[in-house]
Specification:
Elements lengths: L1 H13 L5 H33 L6 E6 L10 E2 L2 H6 L14 E12 L6 E9 L3 H4 L4 E5 L8 E5 H6 L8 E4 L2 E10 L8 E4 H8 L3 E2 L1 E5 L6 H9 L6 E5 H45 L1 H9 L4 H31 L3 E4 L6 E4 L4 H28 L2 H6 L2
Parallel strand pairs: 4-9, 6-8
Antiparallel strand pairs: 1-11, 1-12, 2-10, 3-4, 3-11, 5-8, 6-9, 7-8, 13-14
């Protein structure tokens, strides 16, 4: 049995050069499917990992009721004062509540890689921002001074965008901000521009803030803090742990990429499947004499079916390898930014073995589906019918 399968399969594979044109069509179709799949999954996985890797459970984020992202939240200016009196908030050495009321806008700047414009988030923060977010460390220059049009730039953003060197200027609404420092955080949040909230809000004419972030005494006091704010009739807010808020953003992002990926790849897979079907039917037809001879010599239908399936898997593997390689060459090590009012993230793309494996599984599924019907047709072909083609 196995010797028969090996013999028929070897003959099938040797005949691929004779069907080179049709085989190349299948390989290209599958390469396109896998290339799109690996590319989109790479972007989704990298951004999701960046979001899941930041945030602290002892920080709480206060947004307007029903606002799921900062950009959609508009809180009255007195919100920070009301939040400051809630239980569980850390006190600064000066006796103030450790919180920062933030305003987030965006500015379009050219990327270093290709000069195209991309959004950079600009966050106006309060006086105690560095207490609330101690991971922010100024590594070059100095912190900005409140009341002045000064800003500090994250290291990742400085690497990603042009013109953000120390001493550089960024044109925002109403004037130009000077970059006086560079900061790092050790995670994806070092990809924005930080400045004084009052100066930024005044320049944009805002009479609100987007969010209030507080530092809690411990993660255990979160429920008490949240209950106090949501029970206050003068407030209309939702309260999140910072880590949970970012995890929710990661889930939403992953869901969006998952939907888009599978819709697009399913359409492309259907096209590749048609090409595979045509190729496999052509393969069977061109081997009618071979099949007739083998069947007359006693070779069974199992060997013929197996040879067709193995040929399909081989073409699929070649296509998957090509698609994965193209995706890796284009995306591996490149940066992707998720900017604007909702988030400020720049992260490196990484093509993972798991993503490539997913691409190979899709390629195998397309290849086997395309070969199934031709294989069944070959197995059911009567010997007498095949011999008449000799």
């Amino acid at each position: 049995m196995f010797r028969q399968i090996a013999a028929v399969t070897l003959m099938s594979l040797k005949g691929i050069p004779e069907r080179l044109g049709a085989s190349v069509v299948v390989v290209i179709g599958i390469a396109a499917v896998v290339g799109v799949l690996v590319s989109v999954f790479t972007m989704a996985g990298s951004l999701q990992g960046a979001l899941l890797g930041v945030g602290s459970p002892d920080r709480a984020l206060v947004l307007r009721t029903a606002a799921t992202v900062e950009g959609a939240s508009m809180l009255p200016l007195d919100t920070a004062g009301l939040v400051a009196g809630a239980p569980g908030v850390v006190r600064t050495p000066e006796g103030r509540s450790a919180l920062t009321a933030d305003v987030v806008v965006s500015v379009s700047l050219p990327r270093r890689s290709n000069g195209t414009l991309s959004a950079l988030a600009v966050r106006g923060v309060g006086t105690d921002n560095f207490v609330v977010r101690p991971e922010i460390t100024v590594v070059e220059g100095r912190p900005f001074k409140p009341g002045l049009r000064e800003a500090i730039i994250g290291r990742s953003a400085q690497t990603e965008f042009e013109g953000l060197e120390l001493g550089g200027e960024v044109a925002l609404r109403g004037g130009v901000w000077t970059i006086v420092g560079v900061y790092t955080t050790g995670d994806a949040t070092e990809s924005g521009l930080l400045t004084d909230v009052d100066t930024l809000a005044s320049a944009y004419g805002f009479g609100f803030v987007n969010s209030v972030t507080v530092l809690l005494e411990s993660p255990a006091v979160f429920d008490e803090f949240k209950s106090a704010l949501t029970a206050d009739p003068t407030l209309a807010v939702d309260v999140y742990r910072e880590s949970e808020y970012l995890a929710q953003a990661a889930e939403n992002l992953a869901g969006l990429f998952f939907f888009v990926t599978y819709v697009v790849c399913s359409i492309m897979a259907a096209g590749a499947l048609v090409g595979a079907l045509n190729t496999m039917y052509a393969a069977v037809s061109s081997r009618t004499v071979e099949i007739a001879t083998l069947r007359a010599l006693g070779f069974g239908a199992v060997g013929i079916v197996t040879s067709v399936l193995i040929e399909a898997l081989l073409l699929a593997a070649i296509g998957a390898t090509a698609g994965s390689a193209i995706s890796w060459l284009i995306f591996a090590g490149d940066s992707i930014s998720l900017g604007g009012n909702e988030a400020t993230l720049v992260t490196k793309l990484a093509v993972t073995p798991a993503t490539v494996a997913t691409g190979f599984v899709w390629a195998g599924a397309v290849g086997l589906s395309g070969a199934l019907f031709p294989a069944v047709r070959a197995a059911r072909l009567p010997v007498a019918t095949a011999l008449r083609a000799v």
